[in-house]
Amino acid sequence: MRIFVNVGASLREGFFSPQTLRRMQTMGEVRFCPEHPLGGEALCRELKDTDLLLTGWGQPTLHAADLGDVKLWAHTGGTVGGIAAEDVFDAGIPVLSGNRYYAESVAEGVIAYMLFALRDMGQNAALTKAGGWPENRTRGLLDKKVGIVSVGAVSRLVIEWLARFRCETLVYSTRPDPDYAARTGIRYAALDEIFSVCDVVSVHTARTPQTYHMIGAHHFALLRPGAVFLNTARGEVIDEEALLEALKGNRFSAVLDVYQREPLPADHPFHTLPNITLFPHQCGPTYDRRDYITCRLLDDAERFFRGEKPENEITKEVAARMTH
């Protein structure tokens, strides 16, 4: 087997541990791109007589004509939206990604952010470290009413795990599924109801032209006093200016992990607000999952080349719904 790794040098240490590299070398001949990922004709030349292509973050969009003789493409990122062109699927080249493992890690982060905000962990830890002893006015996630905006791989896991906290979960979806609701105990609801009645509202909407600023001033005005608003999806899904203005009233709090401009500028007005917690797009996957994801994709590659069905294949239909 011939393997080509089109992952930039800055990412290799995290996604390819020494043990994983040794494993790959037992699978076949392994070659790497230069410092940055290749695309187009430059990549196509490298992929002559190549069986397996591995890509990662920063990969330019690839078309079927760019893939040379590749029989299987495994992307160590989550989404392949904007990376795998439609003609790749039309050409019958199987595409794998780490999406399911990213979803697990992001969902873990979402639950952590909910607990962090409700228990006011940041402020209480800072005050205690400074020598104080804050009065306990924290809240928990148990038995809360939680709103989930959009259903996907991440939010399905969040919904599943919220059941352990006995949460009443309301879900907004453009494709409601009665069978899924019956299995999970969720209730589908309109955005206005979710923002009006929930203790926590968590956004999981993919970034598309149709979802740009779908959450705005109207929705923030509906949030109840003390509510927590979370966005771990994409910054463009919410109107940041509207959120900024709404937060100035100190009626609710917010946790953001994503922004319209990243990194978030040091002079952004969000930094001046006491009722917002800002994270640097690190909800998931955590760093320690990177090599794990590569290993699971290599497991799948071995299945594929044995003639078995891989577990992490992304279909054309799924890819079309993925965030770019």
What's the structural blueprint in terms of helices and strands?
Elements: E1 2-6, H1 9-15, H2 18-27, E2 29-32, H3 40-46, E3 52-55, E4 72-75, H4 86-90, E5 95-97, H5 99-118, H6 121-129, E6 145-149, H7 153-162, E7 168-172, H8 178-184, E8 187-188, H9 191-197, E9 200-203, H10 217-222, E10 228-231, H11 240-247, E11 253-256, E12 276-278, H12 290-305, H13 316-321
Helix pairs in contact: 5-7
Brief synopsis:
Helices cover 36% and strands 15% of the residues.
User: Helix fraction?
Assistant: 25-40%
**Content of β-strand:** 5-15%
Q: What is the spatial order of strands in the main beta sheet? A: 8-7-6-9-10-11-12
Main sheet, how many strands, which sense, barrel?
Answer: 7 strands, parallel
Number of separate domains: 2
- Rg over CA atoms, rounded to whole Å, is 22 Å
CATH class of the largest domain: Alpha Beta
What is the CATH third-level topology name of the largest domain? Rossmann fold
* Silhouette: elongated
Mean pLDDT: 97
Poorly predicted tracts of residues: none
Oligomer: single chain
Order of helices and strands: EHHEHEEHEHHEHEHEHEHEHEEHH
CATH architecture of the largest domain: 3-Layer(aba) Sandwich
Tally the helices: what do you get? 13
CATH superfamily of the largest domain, by name, is NAD(P)-binding Rossmann-like Domain
What class do helices, strands and sheet pairing give? alpha/beta
Distance between the termini: 31 Å
> Could you give the count of β-strands?
12
Please tell me about this protein's structure.
This protein is an alpha/beta fold and 324 residues long. It folds into 2 domains: 135 residues, Rossmann fold; 177 residues, Rossmann fold (3-Layer(aba) Sandwich), CATH 3.40.50.720. The protein is 36% helix and 15% strand. It contains 13 helices and 12 strands. The strands form 2 sheets. Strands 8-7-6-9-10-11-12 form a 7-stranded parallel sheet, with helices on both faces. Helix 4 links the parallel strand 4 and strand 5. Helix 5 packs across helix 7.
